[in-house]
């Protein structure tokens, strides 16, 4: 079962000093910490790794509402997050040797992301080794030819065993079957590889015993202990009293990854003071660590080493090979060849979008998180250093968060009426020479908010209407425009409550709320009212709605609909009007 090894009480303590320069307090993107579990390899599918909810201090409701999920990590297929229970379980069989090879300790990391608000938690799972491999030898038999004249103390390099397990479960010891002539001495390289050397402690006598059969047993430190055996067949030869001697105890060389097959590495050289066949030296590789023997080949006569298989720096950064020089009399010497692999920039960055919503409201404040993405480069050092960029004319910026994680943030306030959508191209470029880059494009749409009131096409309206019109007649129309979208741009027209000559304006005219057409409610009489002045309101369908007003002046035009009337003299009764004229009236009275 998984055991919680470490949890950061304060997440800042989990960050390296480099990260201290990158700490920003984001409103909607937080990192709560990281946890570490240890589990043995070869666990069954469904086996519990750890209670993530409990260890992160999250309840199950938060895991479900935040759509908690594993979002990154090339080894994320090994684990499964069961958000309904808040636990992390094994998703498929984990083989520590397949996952990490000879790297120890062996672990892999991934991130769990929650949304609304966004949280990112890093999980590290350490895979503990179990003793599931026995030491093995490359060959079934070690054939040695040793001269009877070999001196006491002569050493004979034996093939190394290989155990992919780590730590105490790896190769620990060699045992030589009991015999009178040889003792076993064990050594370790600086990289931890153990090898055995057989030391002659009693002279050989070909006439008494021309052939010896021994066994070399390699054992590990597991419980129960595992072992591997190889037979040593020794043919005793006549005198060969000088072993080969290498001119260097250590050879160093470099090779670029992806070097063509046949690329020259180095040449080893050993000399033998004997003459004839006893002085003829041949070169072979001893058992090499991991897959080194598949990558290189040595010419048995010249000692020239070349590349025979593809080399990938991302898989192997260094090779150590033991080379044996053996003469025809069975005497040998050994040297070590260390080959450093030089990284070349052969991997472009990879962009993974962790979280992105393709629509955002135009009223979000600058600095809002638009997307969270991850960038990785399999190369190392400068070849793996990434810089992310955007098109310079876009109103966005990129901000680093965790290692290899970035936030895409808005940099200005949006205006849908000016720019309704953006195509955002993110470019990730490494620092190699020449640099490699990768791009990905996000399409972001800006959703509308009701931030624009309707606007009439004219600052005011005026119209002329001839009196004695028919009630219901269409008088004239007005229109307004709203630059918002959809419901926010749907306009309705209303008469403002005002009075004309003591009567409400609605008793004179009406307006169609959808078209803005004004109709007469009654027949107008110029002799009673000569003009109407009223206000029309245009209101959109937003929430809350926005509106604007305009003044309408309607002039009533006269018709000849009244005959003249005699006002004086006043008729009193009949059709004849009597008027008294003074006798003394002058002309023109």
From TrEMBL:
One of its GO terms (biological process) is anatomical structure morphogenesis. GO terms for molecular function: calcium ion binding. The keyword Cytoplasm does not apply. SUPFAM superfamilies: Cadherin-like. PROSITE patterns: CADHERIN_1, CADHERIN_2. This is Protocadherin gamma-A5-like. The chain crosses the membrane at residues 12-31. It is a single-pass type I membrane protein. Keywords: Calcium, Cell adhesion, Cell membrane, Glycoprotein, Membrane, Repeat, Signal, Transmembrane, Transmembrane helix. GO terms for cellular component: plasma membrane. Signal peptide: none annotated. The gene is LOC103375578. The lineage of its organism: Eukaryota, Metazoa, Chordata, Craniata, Vertebrata. InterPro entries: Cadherin-like_dom (IPR002126), Cadherin-like_sf (IPR015919), Cadherin_CS (IPR020894), Cadherin_N (IPR013164), Protocadherin/Cadherin-CA (IPR050174).
């Amino acid at each position: 079962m998984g055991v919680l090894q470490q949890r950061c009480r304060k997440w800042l303590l989990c960050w390296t000093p480099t990260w201290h320069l990158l700490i920003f307090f984001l409103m909607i993107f937080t990192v709560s910490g990281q946890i570490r579990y240890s589990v043995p390899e070869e666990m069954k599918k469904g086996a519990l790794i750890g209670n993530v909810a409990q260890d992160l201090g999250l309840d199950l409701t938060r895991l479900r509402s935040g759509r908690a999920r594993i979002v990154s990590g090339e080894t994320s297929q090994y684990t499964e997050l069961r958000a309904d229970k808040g636990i992390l379980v094994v998703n498929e069989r984990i083989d520590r040797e397949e996952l990490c090879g000879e790297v120890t300790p062996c672990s892999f990391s991934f991130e769990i992301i929650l949304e609304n608000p966004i949280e990112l938690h890093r999980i590290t799972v350490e895979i503990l080794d179990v003793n599931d491999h026995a030491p093995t030898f490359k060959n079934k038999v070690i054939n040695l030819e040793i001269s009877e004249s070999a001196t006491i103390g002569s050493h004979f390099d034996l093939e190394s065993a290989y155990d992919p397990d780590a730590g105490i479960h790896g190769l620990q010891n060699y045992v030589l079957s009991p015999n009178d002539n040889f003792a076993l001495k064990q050594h370790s390289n600086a990289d931890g590889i153990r090898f055995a050397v057989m030391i002659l402690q009693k002279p050989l006598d070909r006439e008494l015993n021309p052939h010896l059969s021994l066994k070399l047993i390699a054992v590990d430190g597991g419980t129960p202990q595992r072992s591997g055996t190889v037979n040593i067949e020794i043919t005793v030869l006549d005198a060969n009293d000088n072993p080969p001697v290498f001119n260097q105890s250590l050879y160093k060389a470099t090779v670029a990854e992806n070097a063509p097959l046949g690329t020259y590495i180095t040449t080893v050289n050993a000399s033998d003071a004997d003459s004839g066949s006893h002085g003829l030296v041949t070169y072979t590789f001893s058992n090499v660590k991991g897959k080194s023997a598949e990558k290189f080949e040595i010419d048995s006569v010249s000692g020239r080493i070349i590349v025979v298989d593809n080399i990938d720096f991302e898989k192997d950064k260094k090779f150590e090979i033991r080379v044996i020089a053996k003469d025809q009399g069975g005497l040998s010497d050994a040297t070590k060849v260390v080959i450093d692999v030089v990284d070349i920039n052969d991997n472009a960055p990879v962009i993974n979008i962790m979280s992105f919503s393709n629509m955002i409201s135009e009223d979000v404040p600058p600095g809002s998180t638009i997307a969270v993405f991850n960038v990785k480069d399999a190369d190392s050092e400068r070849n793996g250093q990434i810089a992310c960029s955007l098109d310079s004319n876009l109103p966005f910026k990129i901000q680093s968060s965790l290692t290899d994680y970035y936030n895409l943030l808005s940099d200005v306030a949006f205006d849908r009426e000016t720019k309704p959508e953006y195509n955002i191209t993110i470019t990730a470029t490494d620092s190699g020479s020449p640099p490699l880059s990768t791009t990905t494009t996000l399409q972001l749409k800006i959703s509308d908010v009701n931030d624009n009131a309707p606007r009439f096409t004219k600052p005011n309206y005026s119209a002329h209407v001839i009196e004695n019109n028919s009630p219901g007649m269409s008088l004239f129309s007005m229109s307004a425009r709203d630059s918002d979208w959809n419901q926010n741009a749907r306009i309705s027209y209303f008469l403002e409550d005002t009075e004309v000559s003591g009567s409400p304006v609605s008793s004179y005219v009406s307006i169609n709320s959808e078209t803005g057409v004004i109709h007469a409610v009654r027949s107008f009489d110029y002799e009673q009212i000569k003009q109407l002045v009223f206000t029309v309101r245009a209101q959109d369908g937003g929430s809350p709605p926005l509106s604007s007003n305009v003044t309408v002046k309607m002039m009533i035009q006269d018709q000849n609909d009244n005959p003249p009337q005699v006002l004086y003299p006043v008729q009193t009764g009949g059709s004849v009007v009597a008027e008294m004229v003074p006798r003394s009236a002058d002309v023109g009275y």
